[in-house]
């Protein structure tokens, strides 16, 4: 079974972060990948990692369990380890399905900011509405996609809108059935990279 509850522990002060995942191996990799790049969504854990270094943190599986028990079990271990008390841990609150989704949105934004810089050599971009010349600046694809969907410029799924925006900003040829073309506009907007 790949799903279950885990902790990340600072072995110097014994503070812990409790989490759950449907794929524990993947989750361990993602946590340490974000921590190493300084983009983890939990700022308390990130600050501790920055101060003490990876060698002073360990990842441990507390219990394997079925998907439908993850939230219940995670909250049990948060209480057991008192990890929402800053004296003992890094958790900000107990978990619910809605909070889990909100944190994922934060992670997506942080990753988007990091990847824009890493893969595209830019930090910000503008979307300029073609009909009104209204300018909006963004530092991540998540906010830009949400803006386009919320304001009726797209009815697509958020992930698809982000991918199309990313391709447009990077000048990637889109397959249009012939040789492909590079977009000059996207979702009724012109776009500009800000360095």
Account of the 3D structure:
- With 195 residues, this protein is α+β, with helices and mostly antiparallel strands.
- The chain folds into two domains: 4-95, GIY-YIG endonuclease (3-Layer(aba) Sandwich); 107-194, no CATH class.
- Helix content is 43%, strand content 22%.
- The chain is built from six helices and nine strands; from the N terminus they run ββααβααββααββββ.
- Strand 8 (185-186) and strand 9 form a beta hairpin.
- Helix 5 (141-150) crosses helix 6 (158-170).
- It is elongated.
- The model has no long low-confidence stretch (mean pLDDT 86).
Task: Kindly list the characteristics that best describe this protein.
195 residues; alpha+beta; GIY-YIG endonuclease; 2 domains; four-stranded antiparallel beta sheet; three-stranded antiparallel beta sheet; 6 helices; 9 strands; 22% strand; elongated
Oligomer: single chain
| Main sheet: strands, sense, barrel | 4 strands, antiparallel
CATH class type of the largest domain: Alpha Beta
Count of discrete structural domains: 2
Poorly predicted segments: none
